[in-house]
From TrEMBL:
PANTHER family, alphabetized: MODULATES DNA TOPOLOGY, YALI0E33011P
CDD domains cross-referenced by the UniProt entry: SIMIBI
Species in which this protein is naturally found: Priestia endophytica DSM 13796
Protein name: Topology modulation protein
InterPro entries: Cytidylate_Kinase-2, P-loop_NTPase
Amino acid sequence: MNLIMVVGISPGVGKSTFARRLGEALHIEVHHLDALFWTPNWVEASLEEFSKSQQDMIPRDQWIIEGNYKNTFQIRLQRADTIIYLLD
């Protein structure tokens, strides 16, 4: 369990909190997709920029990536060894 996706049924289900706590417990860096998607002044990153930031991240040996963002789900899925899906 070194390449972990944390996704969930809806906003507010606790993905960020869970991912942060899991990262602390496992000593693995957590990446929040909202931080990659929203650039300064709440401007959306282009799909190309957003995809590239994830493609640059996934070759690492360890990561926890938190967030749904279905349009780039496959990027993370291709390397993830664990998927945690949170329900209400």
